[in-house]
Amino acid sequence: MSKHEMKMYQSTEDYLEAILMIKQEKGHCRSVDIAKRLDFKKSSVSIAITKLTNEGYVIKNEDGMLELTEVGLKLANNILERHNFFFNWLRSLGVDEERAYDDACRIEHAMCDDTFHKIVSYVRGRDNGNS
Length: 131
Prior knowledge:
The protein is mainly alpha-helical. The chain has two domains: 71 residues, Winged helix-like DNA-binding domain superfamily/Winged helix DNA-binding domain (Arc Repressor Mutant, subunit A); 51 residues, no CATH class. It contains six helices and two strands. A hairpin with a 5-residue loop joins strand 1 and strand 2. Helix 1 crosses helix 2, helix 1 packs across helix 4 and helix 2 packs across helix 3. The radius of gyration is 16 Å and the shape is elongated. It starts with a helix and ends with a helix. The N terminus is likely disordered.
């Protein structure tokens, strides 16, 4: 995967994760909510939502509310699981909350599923005294 493809995929993941988190917090999500969450211009979010809609990850209702498709929801849940795992793990190591959040955001995109699951298994095994 090229750096350009990785950056595009990371951007997609960031948007899908933001939509999921906003929907969990507020019960609904609009483009303006994403712009606030990610600190992006509304016009940039609009372009991205159009792209995500065309790729089959998001549905934009007539009232402007955003819904994740089945594929979009699966991806969003996957990336949120990674984020939460790395955030909690870093916090357990004594990393301060803001740094742990920022680092988890970077780490969550950096590895394949197999590597992630092996790290989770290793960490959980150590937590249970099975090292």
